[in-house]
Design goal:
single chain; eight-stranded mixed β-sheet; four-stranded antiparallel β-sheet; 8 helices; about 30% strand
Length: about 425
């Protein structure tokens, strides 16, 4: 005698359960950690509406100037912090990545709820899918997600990775990128001047398959600093094709496009700063002198050594190089965007070009502002150099424990009843 078919209601319940599983199947690269060290990282963020520069910065509790410089936007424009950025604009958001509960994440962002907010609207719209509603609920111990008090302050846990600040033994900063419906792994690799293999290694992927909502760690070539640990800007790293302002807005450090050597000089925002002249020299920060000789090229430079106890540290160095360096190349800056084209994206600068040749004389910046000339240029066995082989794993976004157990229990009971 054949068994009766399960009721239609149970069959529908099964499909509903499987549908729920599908909704939470987006993956995010998780980096385990065991120390208190932090690093600089970036988020790929798409504006959900028109917002001022200062409003975007406030959304992530970062300095508006750091937001602009991370995206190679010219800060010399009048009242640039109140410039309105268009909806759907893609930005790179600089954040500090910490070790929290054994994994890398950023917990510095706080959000104050508004009357129309829900956990889903906060996660999917306001924070552009960088966090899930369940992650916000768990981080804030919210028992009833349907009830949010207006003005309630929520901690927003955001994804990030460090991987020792390297990729294939070269300096890198990692961007947490939310996959769009139109994305392919090959397209993402091309946009960020990397390879499919590198992305697969970094994210511990077994195939090139990705889906909308996945969060990938994308390595961006960068210029790393070597400041002492007691420096206020210890660990400064600047993505290729952009710049950063440091030392209380007194020093501007840029990366590329000619190489991956950090170049620092007085900033355009400098108002009241300590001396930037190298001791026992008439060279100022950023100045370089070159002298061709039969043995090679004698290069003397005044470099930035960090911001220590309110003092800008400068270092005078002399070296004999096979050839003289060319004039310093600066990242190409863009005007603050006012419109956005379909599928537009701010991609990192192209791979570094070889340096030019020089002869003799002094190489010095002609202006304290980076020149603005137009548009922005362009398993784990083989994990990023310096990282532990088990550090990167492509994991499903964690659901809160109680709902997960409940769903699994209901599913088990449903399956038994259908036998």
């Amino acid at each position: 005698m054949s068994k009766p078919k399960p009721p239609i209601s149970r069959t529908l319940s099964l499909f509903l359960f499987l549908g729920i599983l599908g909704l939470v199947a987006s993956k995010s690269t998780i980096e385990p950690c065991s120390n208190s060290d932090s690093c600089n990282a970036m988020l790929g963020y798409t504006l959900y509406t028109d917002l001022k520069v200062a409003e975007v910065a406030s959304l992530f509790q970062i300095d508006p100037i750091s937001l602009l410089t991370a995206n190679a936007i010219d800060i010399s424009y009048p009242d640039v912090e109140n410039h309105i950025l268009p909806s759907q604009l893609f930005l790179k958001i600089p954040i500090t990545c910490s070790c929290v509960d054994g994994i890398r994440k950023s917990m510095a962002t706080k959000y104050k709820t508004r009357p129309s907010d829900t956990l889903s609207s906060i996660s999917d719209s306001i924070y552009s899918g960088l966090v899930s509603a369940d992650q916000i609920r768990e981080a804030n111990s919210i028992s009833d997600p349907s009830v949010l008090d207006v003005g309630q302050t929520l901690v927003i846990p955001l994804p990030c990775t460090c991987f020792n600040g390297t990729d294939n033994s070269l300096p890198a900063i990692y961007l947490s990128y939310v996959v769009r419906a139109v994305d392919t792994l090959a397209g993402i690799a091309a946009s960020y001047s990397t390879t499919i293999t590198d992305l697969m290694n970094v994210n511990a992927m077994g195939s090139t398959s990705i889906k909308e909502g996945d969060i990938l760690a994308v390595p961006l070539p960068a210029c790393a600093s070597n400041f002492p640990r007691y420096s206020a800007d210890y660990g400064l790293i600047v993505p290729n094709g952009s710049y950063a302002i440091t030392a209380s807005h007194c020093v501007q450090c840029s990366c590329g496009p000619g190489n991956l050597n950090l170049y620092c000089m007085p900033a355009s925002l400098a108002v009241s700063c300590s001396s930037m002249q190298c001791r026992n020299s008439n060279l100022m920060l950023g100045n370089v002198t070159v002298q061709q000789s039969t043995a090679g090229c004698n290069v003397t430079s005044c470099s930035y050594g960090g911001y220590i106890n309110g003092t800008i540290v400068t270092t005078l160095s002399t070296s004999l190089q096979p050839r003289c360096p060319g004039a310093q190349q600066f990242p190409t800056l863009i005007a603050p965007p006012s419109s956005v084209s379909k599928d537009s994206i701010f991609a990192p600068a192209p791979a570094p070009q070889s340096d030019g040749r020089g002869t003799s004389g002094t190489i010095a910046p002609t202006s304290s502002v980076v020149p603005s000339t137009g548009s922005l240029p362009g398993v784990t066995a083989n994990a990023p150099s310096g990282s532990v082989s088990s550090d990167a794993s492509f994991l499903v976004k964690p659901l809160a424990r109680a709902p997960t157990i409940l769903l699994l229990a209901l599913f088990a009971e449903l399956m038994v009843s259908m036998l």
